[in-house]
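Q: Hi! First time doing this. I have a protein sequence and I read that you can turn it into a structure. Is that right? Here it is:
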Amino acid sequence: MKGAGRRGRAAALLLGVAGGLVLAVPVALADGHGARLTLDNDQFNFWQVPDARPDFGYTHGVELAFHAPRAPASLARLAPAWLVGGKTAERSLEVRVRQAIYSPWTNPPDRPYAGWLELALGLAHTDLQASREVLLHVGVTGPPSQAGATQRYFHRRFDKGEPPDWSGQLPAEPGIGLEASAARLTRAPETTWQSFGGWFVRARAGTYALDLRLGATFSAGLGPPRPWPAPAPTGSGPALYLRWAPRLDLIARDEFLDGTLFRSSAAPGANPVVPESEFVIGTGWGHARLEWSVLRRGKEFEAQPGPHTYGSLALTWLP
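A: Yes, that's right. Below is the predicted 3D structure, encoded as structure tokens:
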């Protein structure tokens, strides 16, 4: 009966994601709206044979994001003017639902199994040159995140061997946090074939994370989009592009490596400085984009055997 219950919860989660996709279609088709589905998984390491692909560290993530061009006035007034483009700037509404799954590298575990399920609501001010955004995240760790049920379901469904034992996972605990980010291009592209660069900064403060990210981005190709929701630069034409984004994380707290805040939990402790690099191959036509990313992240804790490389797929409808 317990197994049936887990399968039922996993199925409910999958149905919820599918339902969100159905709802995303009419929203995305409306003028000025956008939607994005992102899937992170070691199984997207397509340069490796399937049996050699890893299943540890940040092993799976799914995010469904929506962008509406105008936030309700009562909500738009909540954000400080300096964060989202000034008192008179038009502010967009950002809504995201995300689940993340973390697994140990070795047995006995060097890091606990952990899950995170969250809803993020925020405001942004974007144009073709720059972006500013502030988000409020509310989520939960432990069994309510459904991370264990999701991983066990996929292990059984795709014959990945004995489902892992999540009995020692990070305990259930609610989480909340604020995130503020800003990005800017060094110049605005003017031609169909183009290359451009820019910078990015993000700060998070909350129960689950306290960190600062500094990064850069470089894009080149036919009609590459901005790395934020903005009008498609090539109208209805084709797109084929590359993007490279090196980043550096300065970490004061990571709940999934330092343990839960209000309850005792085993954890190895997070490294204070973690580099990361993302390489993206993207294609599309008009407002639709499909991107495959390869992310290589440095050692997140001292006992980690080495850097972690994983793949990501993103399907986007740009405004």
